[in-house]
Amino acid sequence: MRELFAVGEAMPYLDVGGVRLYYDVVGSGEPVVLVNGIFMSTRSWVYQANHLASVGYMVVTHDLRGQWMSDKPIEEDLYSVEIHAEDLRKLLDHLGLRRAHLVGTSYGGMISMLFAVKYREYVNDLTIITSTSEIHEDLRLTALRWLEGALSGDFRKFVLSWINDVYSGEYLTTAGPTFVDKLIGYFSQGFDLQAAVKLLKAFLRVLDSPLTPLITKIEVPTLVVAAELDRVMPPKYSRIISRSIRGSTYFEVREAGHAVIIEKPDIVNCIVTGFIRSNSLSSNP
To answer: Residue 145's Cα: distance from chain center in Å?
Structure first.
């Protein structure tokens, strides 16, 4: 069983135009592809990956270019939602996956939505968790604060710049005061702050090129999951997504923050598994 906040052993890589992407595959069955948020690693999905593999799915995760075990190009123009979506397509081609259940959270939700627009034939169904299709002023200011934290070059300042946004107060209280030091230790084991700056700038470029007009083209079954106490991408953003994608299903997890996949894994696992089971690949030829 995989663990949260652990550094992974060596796993396969895919070379994409000279950029090596680290990926992981567990379980067997219909493929479920989980797409990282901006500071996440493949291990961040541990609760979902372990559960889905245990109930008969093949789970695919990867570190985005700029994250953890994947390469981190120096040039800023090699980071964008579009490029991350193209990387994902090449990974699915490499694995021989012609169609999959696609799940993305936060920035990974943005990648997943664009992927569903550009590469419709690969997507059987789509689950978007605590994400957004556009950036309002509140979110821009939050991202700028995170950017300052990354630019500081100090892991403590970096973690403190976002921890209170990402996790709910209830979760932080339960986790206790040692949680901050645990996160700092975790990020200092392989997270690249300079690459984080480039990832955040890629995210902020969506301010000028919102995805909302594009996602109206999405026609696959879609589940949109919000978290009641999300201070990064509050439910208003998920409602915009849900309204923009015809026939989508909206679900709001109570008493959870932005990191709902970690705070409320049992609830997330239940609703996501139920959704993908109701949209099996065999029922959508």
So the answer is: 20
**Rg, Å, the chain Cα set:** 17
Q: List the beta bridge partners of residue 24.
A: 61
Q: Which domains, and CATH codes, for the chain? A: 13-135+209-283 (3.40.50.1820)
Where is 31: in which H helix or E strand? strand 30-35
Q: Do 162 and 149 contact (CB within 8 A), yes or no? A: yes
**What is the model's pLDDT at position 284?**
66
Given pLDDT bands bounded at 50, 70 and 90, which one contains residue 225? very high
Q: Kindly give, in sequence order, each residue whose CB lies less than 8 Å from that of residue 222, ignoring residues fewer than 6 positions away.
A: 116, 125, 126, 127, 128, 245, 247, 248, 249
Pairing of strands 13-16, 19-26: antiparallel
Binning pLDDT at 50, 70 and 90, where does residue 283 land? confident
Q: What is the separation of C-alpha 112 from the centre of its chain, rounded to a whole number of angstroms?
A: 8
Residue among 178, 20, 41 at smallest CA distance from 87: 20
